[in-house]
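Lab meeting, item 3. Inverse folding demo.
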């Protein structure tokens, strides 16, 4: 048998991807993948739809990508195989989603105040689940204000700390690693070196996260240049962290394809061994 291909970071219409969960699992199998993780932003809403449509031969790791921060710098934490009935964890995710709605409303208010032709109804209709900046970006494209989603993520528009960017709740990452672990899950630091998106945390924060029980670093990611990957690989080694790879697939909102970046089967096994909150399907 060929070496299994495993993509541990994907988004659907449950957050800011453009592919519905039941379509994502089909496309993953068609792309020759053997396992995927579903990691929508701050929600597990896509879990059941993906599970019900799961094709033969594809393993599904249920997860989420959780909005966190450390010392004022935003970061994303991938959480896998946690127990969805864990109230402390689920309550935190609900707060994060509620804050996302308030923040998207605020960004739209700022745009409207400057005469930009977008509306809250438009953004709300574009979002099926967790509201994110990509929905505001889509509205800007739809209204002909910018030519592409990528163009909206610039300082003139809704890029990090940009003119129409708004802040939202983020949970301290050390607290969140604890909440996920208490729920039987395992955590991986998503795209730790994605500097083009905004500020990234220093090595001490990664050390703090490792001490709190972080399992791995997502090293092979589309937003990491080769030299960043090398540096992160060394850091993972120094802290005894696993090294993962994943596409961070968002459908039409990004150019990356499912399976463009993958995790080794050996690392996958080690991740699974650390989780007890929910099963791989
Ligand atoms: P939010 O979590 O609502 O602040 O939105 C951040 C999300 O926007 C990320 O998770 C990506 O999905 C998306 N994103 C960030 N930068 C870009 C970009 N340059 N082009 C397209 N999508 C982006
Ligand atoms: Zn996203
Ligand atoms: Fe992310
Ligand atoms: Fe992501």
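The presenter then showed the designed sequence:
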């Amino acid at each position: 048998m060929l070496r299994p291909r495993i993509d541990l970071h994907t988004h659907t219409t449950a957050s800011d991807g453009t592919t519905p969960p039941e379509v994502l699992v089909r496309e993953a199998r068609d792309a020759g993948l053997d396992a995927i993780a579903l990691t929508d932003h701050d929600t597990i809403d896509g879990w059941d739809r993906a599970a019900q449509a799961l094709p033969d031969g594809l393993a599904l790791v249920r997860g989420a990508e959780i909005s966190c921060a450390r010392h004022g710098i935003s970061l994303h934490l991938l959480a896998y195989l946690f127990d969805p009935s864990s109230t402390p964890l689920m309550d935190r995710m609900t707060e994060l989603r509620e804050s996302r709605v308030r923040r998207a409303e605020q960004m739209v208010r700022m745009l409207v105040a400057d005469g930009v032709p977008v509306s809250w109804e438009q953004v709300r209709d574009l979002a099926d689940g967790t509201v994110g900046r990509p929905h505001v970006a889509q509205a800007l494209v739809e209204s002909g204000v910018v030519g592409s989603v990528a163009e909206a993520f610039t300082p003139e528009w809704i890029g990090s700390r940009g003119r129409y960017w708004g802040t939202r709740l983020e949970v301290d990452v050390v607290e969140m690693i604890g909440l996920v672990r208490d729920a039987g899950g395992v955590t991986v630091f998503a795209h730790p070196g994605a500097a083009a998106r905004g500020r990234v945390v220093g090595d001490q924060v990664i050390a703090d996260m490792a001490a709190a029980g972080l399992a791995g670093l997502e090293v092979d990611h589309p937003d990491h240049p080769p030299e960043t990957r090398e540096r992160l690989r060394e850091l993972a080694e120094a802290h005894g962290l696993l090294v993962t790879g994943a596409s961070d697939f968002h459908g039409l909102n990004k150019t990356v394809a499912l399976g463009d970046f993958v995790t080794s089967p050996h690392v996958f096994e080690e991740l699974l061994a650390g989780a007890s909150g929910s099963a791989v399907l």
